[in-house]
Design a protein that fits this description.
about 425 residues, alpha/beta, 2 domains, four-stranded mixed beta sheet, 19 strands, about 35% helix, globular, binds guanosine-5'-diphosphate, binds 6-O-phosphoryl inosine monophosphate, binds magnesium ion
């Protein structure tokens, strides 16, 4: 029996979907534990590309159980569309389950997300506009609607009546926007609830029984460590707990049941949306990485900001998540660069610091301290063994291992499932 958490070690889009799909071959259950359809996880299997937003990246294996935990915020229309699209592509969703405790994203959450961003003006966060923040706000304010209420029309009516009046008042009186009609919203969402009902089951119980039966459980994080609402570059973060601890809280599993935590990191760094990014490259090299790595958002299509690998944030991810090892993705994208840079520390007011500061003003003053390493020119997309990587690629990875203090377990040399080097078996 083993349970493994896959967590983003940077600002999201590290390739968690690909790594989860790869590891899912050996797992029995795959569990999403936080976030919502702000996530976009791309899986390429047998040359076919799948973009998943809410459904766990284990869904391509028909026999695996795929679970959506209580820590997720679920937009029912998006979830049902995703099921329909997978069904059209011949993928079965018969083994999909959702926790009754999962919070529901309502249309007023999406509208408030957009209104709040507009009001922030130049100080905007650059959210995905999917209603994620407002849905988590309502959960904490205890006015959220959960899946167990959505599928129970009288309970739904009671919750919606109580909350919609306040939401409409906020939209109309404060933002000068139109509100929502109660009956239309009720009818639309009760219909979603009817379709969702067969998928609802106690996720915590399913995981517990699986672990007791000696099965392998894989937890799939969304977003990344630096987007965590507590540990990320606040306030330029998402509103959930992408860190490994979130896997326990967001699925109803105790921390003693987790065996390993895999941090997924790109061989460089990207970020979508606003907020600090010390190693960002606003030059031709940044553009090279964006074009070669197809660094455009899976969910919003926005160009991703690109920069050098940052060992300060990687070490931070090792500490915050208790990483057992790192999965380094997109190593192939660095091919062709003569010289590579690794950020080994930050210079702050004449001193070298190795730990991520908490304040944005301090972070803004930090200048990355770089170490230079020689690049390689060979195409590595067909390499399948570590020993067959160019010597300079191995040297680059070995330096990352030294700087981060944990081993590398997996290396990605392309988007395909087969373009994966395994250095350490995890199940
Ligand atoms: P996620 O949100 O962490 O699942 O990452 P995304 O799917 O948003 O973004 C990662 C992108 O990189 C996807 O388009 C993947 O298909 C692609 N990808 C993943 N691993 C590799 C790799 O090792 N090499 C290359 N070239 N692309 C990769
Ligand atoms: P995956 O799972 C990258 C970013 C947004 C914005 C901030 C807050 O694919 O790695 P939100 O809509 O969550 O309130 O936006 O977080 N963001 C992501 N960036 N990958 C993601 O997910 C993201 N989900 C949210 O761009 O900066
Ligand atoms: Mg993504």
């Amino acid at each position: 029996m083993a349970s493994v958490v896959v967590v983003g070690a940077q600002w999201g889009d590290e390739g968690k979907g690909k790594i989860t799909d790869f590891l899912a071959a050996r797992a029995d259950l795959v569990v999403r534990y936080q976030g919502g359809n702000n996530a976009g996880h791309t899986v390429v299997a047998d040359g076919k590309e799948f973009k998943l937003h809410l459904i766990p990246s284990g869904i391509l294996y028909p026999e695996k159980m795929c679970l959506v935990g209580n820590g997720v915020v679920l937009d029912p229309a998006v979830f049902l569309q995703e099921i329909d699209r997978l069904t059209e592509q011949g993928i079965s969703t018969a083994n999909l389950r959702i926790s009754p405790r999962t919070q529901v994203i309502m249309p007023y959450h999406r509208k408030l997300d957009l209104c709040e961003e507009k009001r922030r003006g130049a100080g905007k966060i650059g959210t995905t506009g999917r209603g994620i923040g407002p849905a988590y706000v309502d959960k904490a304010a205890r006015v959220g609607i959960r899946v167990c209420e959505l599928i129970d029309p009288p309970a739904f009516a009671q919750r919606l009546q109580a909350v919609l009046k306040d939401k409409n008042e906020l939209l109309e009186k404060y933002y000068g926007e139109s509100g929502f009609d109660y009956q239309a919203l009720y009818d639309e969402y009760v219909a979603y609830g009817r379709r969702l009902a067969p998928f609802v089951a106690d996720v915590s119980v399913i995981i517990d029984e699986a672990l007791q039966a000696g099965r392998h459980v894989l937890f799939e994080g969304a977003q990344g460590t630096l987007l965590d609402v507590d540990h990320g570059t606040y306030p330029y973060v998402t509103s959930s707990y992408p860190v490994a601890a979130g896997a326990c809280h967001g699925s109803g599993v105790g921390p003693t049941r987790i065996d390993r935590v895999i941090g997924v990191a790109k061989a460089y760094v990207t970020r979508v949306g606003e907020g600090p990014f010390p190693t960002e490259l606003c030059d031709a090299t940044g553009e090279y990485l964006r074009q070669k790595g197809h660094e455009f958002g899976t969910t919003t299509g926005r160009p991703r900001r690109c920069g050098w690998f940052d060992a300060v944030i990687a070490r931070y991810a090792v500490r915050i998540n208790g990483l057992s090892s790192l999965a380094i993705t997109k190593l192939d994208v660095l091919t062709g660069l003569d010289t590579l840079r690794l950020c080994v520390g930050y210079e702050y007011r004449g001193q070298i610091i190795r730990d991520l500061p908490a304040t944005l003003t301090q972070l803004a003053e930090c200048k990355p301290v770089y170490e230079e390493l020689p690049g390689w020119q060979e195409d590595i997309g067909t390499v399948r063994r570590y020993e067959d990587l160019p010597a300079n690629a191995r040297r680059y990875l070995e330096r990352i291992v030294e700087l981060c203090g944990v081993p590398v377990c997996i290396i990605g040399v392309g988007p395909g499932r087969e373009q994966t080097l395994v250095l350490q078996e995890l199940f």
